[in-house]
Every structure is written in structure tokens, then in C-alpha cells.
Design a protein that fits this description.
Elements: E1 2-3, H1 28-33, E2 36-40, H2 55-64, E3 69-71, E4 77-79, E5 94-98, H3 113-124, H4 142-146, E6 157-161, E7 164-168, H5 176-182, H6 189-195, E8 212-215, E9 223-228, E10 242-247, H7 251-259, E11 265-268, H8 271-275, E12 282-295, H9 300-303, H10 305-313, H11 317-325, E13 330-331, H12 350-354, H13 362-376, E14 381-388, H14 391-407, E15 411-418, H15 420-428, E16 434-440, H16 447-450, H17 467-477, H18 484-501, E17 505-516, E18 520-521, E19 537-538
Parallel strand pairs: 2-10, 14-15, 14-16
Antiparallel strand pairs: 1-16, 3-4, 5-7, 6-7, 8-9, 9-10, 11-17, 12-16, 12-17, 13-17, 18-19
Domain Solute-binding protein family: 77-458
Signal peptide: 1-18
Protein name: ABC transporter substrate-binding protein
Length: 539
């Protein structure tokens, strides 16, 4: 899971093609030395895997780190740092892993079981203020550690010896392999002991054990590199030795850089996706992410249920996706994106099973808004809409502003755009009225989206604390007491309730569109994962 999210043109080193003349052939050595140049839509907030909560940081970490498990080139879970994918014991609550002898950090030190303990303990330690702590909430003693009632050392993660790691869960977690492959990484223990909470604030204050080393990155950097890690256990199969990354927030600039050959992979959005509809170098996939509006429940106006419901009815989601975004995104039907789970009995997709819970009704919007104003004793309201400074979010925010001010008389919306990391920080601090936010899941289970409105969740930025919904989520989490079908039915109840109550207001399921040079192979995209550069190669 992760939060959804100038231009350093001169800083991006683009390697020239080796050889000269149309008939000159490149040698494999030439290709191996040629850098792959790519873009990223925003600045990562951290390189610390224990606290990373935004999509840009997660992307950086996924290219430079590797967990116990990893994903193969088609997005399937396989063994990573662990010797093999293991079967749990004790009714699905104990996992014991052996770490590969060949697993090394970029400085040549062996990866140890303690490195995972260090990372997981810090992730759950309340002092870290990790926005992704609850990915590990099924570990034994998680709640007590998060609440500060027990030391992080009491967490159900132990180094039995240098190469043996054991995870003990409080109850079964069938989707744990997905998390171990995409969202749970080790931290170099000696480096963390040295830097503490400063670990991961720059390339110099972190260390990689994945296919690439992180080089030249700091929190403010607009360009950096991934350089092949010679100590990576599978280094012989990493074909591209260097990847140059440049932050490009404007999709027009991204398209121009690609067209001129200065980058070989880039993200598109809006009109540029439409313009490239017939381009064989474009790859479009629905993402495992949902965009939604968060309303600060601690503020008087946005605490009102009718205000939130009015905002839900004012959004024409089909018009938003087809006319504003124009990028292949799909109109939300509830808080859960399509493809995020299947009924254990019928196999039906969760989104289809729940049905469309959202509708466009401007008349209903005005009625609810007028009722809310009477309840609040106001005639006018000024609300700030917080967004990231990306092209996509700016256009969506402008659409929402126009619709709300048109059908909610007396309402004034001010748009506040900022870099994604700052937006997330303001959201976490509760310093907003309305936040145009999003969530991308790392595993196929609707609970990961529903937790965003759970009053007990660390990622519930709204602070909406509804007793009925929290109780539903408590039952959903009790995997030891419910069958998979019972849990599925509870998930449907929770999704229906939070959507109708507008605890969150779903907008659209994001699509991801990439331009990939025909000279590059091995870059594949799935609903759950972006391309992994360790599988890339020059054709």
C-alpha cells in the first residue's frame, strides 16, 4: 500500500548509442554499459522502507531493495532474499525463513535475519510514525507495541540465528506473501543504529541489497541513478547496469522527452494518453489504486455527514474519467477498485459483487448542502482542497471546485497544490479541510482500502471514527473466527456502509499509462506492480 501520489534536464545523463553508421552492430558489452533513462512523476519522500507511504518512495525502494520474496517478471510471488517460498506452520501463524547465503548488501556484507528484525521493529515502533505500520498488524503483539504498551522487541519477528528469521502471527494472514514480496524489506542494522530516524533521508544514509544501488538521491533531488549492485545475489541476470531517473511532473514534457529519445520509459496522463492511443509503444493498465476525497472529521463543516454526501453526489464520475482525465481511468463504483478480490465461492469480482453504490445527482447535492447549512447554522463556507502538484490532480481539483461551487450555493473552494510528500505530511497532521488523496494496494484484499476509514487505523487521515464501521473492520480482521466466505460478506457490508455514509468519497480507479521504447524489453506492468528494471534489457 502506498499514498498516491523543477525539471533537471541538464542533470540527466543519457548514454549515446555505441557504434556509428547504420550497419554498425552493438556488442553485448556496449549494451550493458548503456544507461536506461526513465522519469518519475514526483519526488520520493524517503528511502526508508519501514516508513515509506507514498507511491514515489515505494517505486524507488522497489528498484533498489528486495524482500524475503519478490515478484517475477509477470508479477507472481517467488523467493527473493529467502531461499524459498515457505509454508506456515501452527495453523498458518508461524513462518520460518532461511536467508540465502549469497544475499549481500551493496558493501558486500551479508544480509542477516537481524536486518529484517530491525526494519520490522522500526516500522511498528510508534516513534517511527510509520504510515505503513499496519501492513504488519498481524504480527504477534502488534497492537501492544503500536500503543506503546510493549517494547518493539516483543513483536512477533525473531532472528533465530544469523540466517534464520521467524515471523509469528496473532492469526492467519493468507495475503502475507504479497506483502513480503512488495512492501517488507530489511534495513542495514549497523547503519540504522548510526542514523536512527535519519535513515533513508538520502542515498548516503541508506544501503541497498537489491539489484541496484541508490546513487545521488536526496529528499530534494530531481534526478538520481540506480547503479547495478555487484553483490546482489542474482546480479548475473541484471542486464542493464545503470538507470537514470528524472522527476518530470508535466506530462507534456514527459511526452517530448520520450519522443526525442532522451528517455526510454515515461508516464503519460490526460490528453497525451489520448494522443498516443494508437502508439504501439504505449502500455495502459488499470492500477490497483483508488482516488478519493478525505474530509477532516475534526473540522465542524466537514464533520457533517450531509456535507460529505453532497460532495459524493456532485461528482459525475463518468464525465470526470472520460472528459477530464482521458487516461483510461475507470469511474469508481465504491471504495474498492475492480480486480481487488474474488468471492471465494462464486469467483465474482468484489466490485461487481457489491455493485455500483455511487451516482451523480446535482439536485440531491443541493438538497443535502442546504440541509447541512441549516444543521450547522451557516449560510456560507470556505473550504480548502488539498492536492499534489501533478497535472492529473490539478485538473481533477479544478473539476471538483467548479462542480461544488455550482451546485452548493454559498460554498467557496480554494485549491492548495503542493509536492506529494508535503501533501501527505499535511494529511497525516490533520492540517486540511478536504484532501484529494489516493491509495494503492500491494495485495488483492479489499480490507486494505477499507482500513482508510477505520477509526483504529494509522492511515485514517480523516479521523472519521464510526463505531459501526470500526466494529465491522474488527470482525474482518478476525481471520481466526470467520470463514473466508463470512469474511467476504463482512467486507461487502463494510464497503457498502462507508460508501453510503461518505466516510470517504471514491472518485476513480487510476489507470497507468507508460511509453516504453521499442528498443527496450522486459518491462511489464500488471494491476499490482510496475515494471522492474532488473528484468529490463536492450534489444
Amino acid at each position: 500500500m502506498k499514498k498516491l501520489m523543477g525539471l533537471g534536464f541538464g542533470l540527466l545523463a543519457v548514454a549515446a548509442l555505441a557504434g556509428c553508421g547504420s550497419t554498425a552492430a552493438q556488442t553485448s558489452a556496449d549494451k550493458a554499459d548503456k544507461a536506461l533513462s526513465v522519469t518519475m512523476v514526483g519526488n520520493p519522500a524517503t528511502a526508508d522502507p519501514a516508513i515509506s507511504g507514498d507511491s514515489n518512495s515505494s517505486s524507488l525502494i522497489a528498484q533498489t531493495e528486495e524482500g524475503l520474496y519478490t515478484l517475477d517478471k509477470n508479477g507472481k510471488v517467488i523467493a527473493g532474499i529467502a531461499e524459498k517460498v515457505v509454508k506456515p506452520t501452527k495453523n498458518g501463524t508461524v513462518y520460518t525463513f532461511k536467508i540465502k547465503k549469497a544475499a549481500k548488501w551493496a558493501n558486500g556484507d551479508p544480509v542477516t535475519a537481524q536486518d529484517f528484525v530491525t526494519s520490522f521493529d522500526w516500522q511498528v515502533n510508534p516513534k517511527s510514525k510509520s504510515q505503513v505500520a499496519n501492513k504488519l498488524k498481524y504480527l504477534k503483539n502488534y497492537d501492544a507495541v503500536q500503543a506503546g504498551k510493549k517494547s518493539p522487541s516483543a513483536l512477533g519477528v525473531k532472528a533465530l540465528d544469523k540466517s534464520t528469521l521467524q515471523l509469528t502471527l496473532s492469526k492467519p494472514q493468507p495475503w502475507l506473501p504479497d506483502i513480503l514480496a512488495t512492501a517488507a524489506y530489511p534495513m542495514k542494522t549497523s547503519l540504522f543504529n548510526k542514523y536512527g530516524s535519519k535513515y533513508g533521508i538520502s542515498a548516503e544514509k541508506t544501503l541497498s541489497e537489491g539489484p541496484y544501488k541508490l546513487v545521488g538521491w536526496s529528499g530534494a533531488a530531481d534526478s538520481w541513478s540506480y547503479v547495478k549492485n555487484p553483490h546482489y545475489w542474482n546480479a548475473k541476470n541484471v542486464k542493464i547496469s545503470k538507470v537514470n531517473v528524472q522527476v518530470v511532473k508535466d506530462p507534456g514534457t514527459s511526452a517530448s522527452l520520450f519522443k526525442s529519445g532522451k528517455v526510454q520509459e515515461t508516464v503519460l496522463s490526460g490528453q497525451y494518453i489520448k494522443q498516443n492511443a494508437n502508439n504501439p509503444e504505449m502500455n495502459t493498465t488499470l492500477n490497483s489504486s483508488m482516488r478519493f476525497l478525505e474530509f477532516n472529521d475534526k473540522k465542524t463543516v466537514t464533520h457533517n455527514t450531509k456535507v460529505r454526501q453532497a460532495f459524493s453526489y456532485v461528482v459525475d464520475r463518468n464525465a470526470l474519467t472520460k472528459n477530464v482525465l482521458q487516461d483510461g481511468s475507470a469511474a469508481a463504483k465504491s471504495l474498492i477498485p475492480s480486480g481487488d478480490g474474488n468471492d471465494p465461492t462464486t469467483g465474482k469480482d468484489f466490485s461487481e459483487d457489491v455493485g455500483n453504490l455511487l451516482s451523480y445527482n446535482p439536485k440531491k447535492t443541493t438538497e443535502l448542502w442546504n440541509q447541512a447549512k441549516k444543521e450547522l447554522g451557516i449560510k456560507k463556507a470556505n473550504l480548502e482542497l488539498l492536492t499534489a502538484d501533478t497535472d492529473e490532480q490539478k485538473h481533477v481539483a479544478q473539476y471538483l471546485q467548479q462542480q461544488a461551487q455550482k451546485y452548493m450555493p454559498g460554498l467557496s473552494i480554494t485549491i492548495k497544490s503542493m509536492p506529494l510528500a508535503q501533501q501527505i505530511a499535511k494529511g497525516a497532521a490533520g492540517n486540511f479541510d478536504i484532501d484529494l488523496d489516493g491509495w494503492t494496494t500491494d495485495w488483492r484484499d479489499p480490507a486494505d482500502f477499507l482500513q482508510m476509514a477505520d477509526g483504529t487505523s494509522s492511515v485514517n487521515f480523516t479521523k472519521w471514527d464510526n463505531a459501526h464501521f470500526t466494529n465491522l473492520m474488527k470482525q474482518v480482521d478476525d481471520t481466526a473466527s470467520h470463514t473466508t466466505q463470512q469474511r467476504w460478506d463482512l467486507l461487502k457490508q463494510a464497503d457498502t456502509y462507508v460508501t453510503k455514509q461518505a466516510g470517504l468519497v471514491p472518485l476513480y480507479q487510476q489507470a497507468k499509462a507508460h511509453l516504453v521504447s521499442k528498443s527496450v524489453g522486459g518491462l511489464k506492468y500488471t494491476m499490482m506492480s510496475d515494471a522492474q528494471y532488473k528484468y529490463a534489457y536492450w534489444k
